[in-house]
Amino acid sequence: MSSESIAASCSKTRNPFTGAEADAVSVKVTGLSKTFGDLSVLKNVSFDVKPGEIFVIMGPSGSGKSVLLRHIAGLEIPSSGTVVVDGLDPSLEETRDRVRLALVFQAGALFNSLSVYDNLALYPREHRSGDEKAIRERVMHALKILSVEQSANQFPSELSGGMKKRVSIARALVMEPQLLLYDEPTSELDPVMGATISEIIATLKNEYSVTSIVVTHDRSLALTISNRVGILMAGKLITLGTPDDLKKSKDPRIVDFLNPKIDIEHPRFKKLEGHESNDKEPPPS
Questions:
Q1: Which residues is 23 bridged to in the sheet?
Q2: pTM
Q3: Which of 29, 58, 189, 201 is least surrounded by CB atoms within 10 angstroms?
């Protein structure tokens, strides 16, 4: 599917609570670089996300994926380059007032001292989004969408890893987002629950056309439910295309990342060990 087709088919999103139609949002990253001291984490990264698509960011650990996601969420300021969400700087308060953005954290980030219900009710209560009856309807509807309404009175410590992930997504839905950001949504889950979370992400996109950006190591998720995938390596975006484009790629870096071979005769860690021994200085402790 072309980028124009994606934009045309997913240009509107429906509020899951009111059913009202609203504009889905686009994201544009241009020449984004980020350094922390002498460490260069992102290097001249550029891409755009069409309204309503599922855009996946993959890459090895330490490649800058989560830092990139934090820039899109407005939680980091670029060293150079720009990030715009619906034409606005996501780090500005006025953007948060105009664009409904929600972030599903890797570890869930649920408040252990609050019940599932109160975790979801916290945002509308803090923002005075209706009376308690309206908030209850909103919270229970979000829980029902994720099929976890039976856990409303439980606490996070009583939930399995998969249930915590689903509750975290339900909490994001309560914010009625136009843009949903997922940081490793299938990490630490068994394959079946990982597939369930992937199905949830796809279902939310299909039913509400919310724009979704997913950071993941999950090959199955990326190649099954995404519209496009970008791969980061060492802070650089080395490729961007559809799942079919990646499957057909002849780039050895992409082939090895998506289909790594276990070689006990020439293990990777030995190659890395040899490479590191040539460094002039050891890494900081």
A1: 12
A2: 0.81
A3: 189
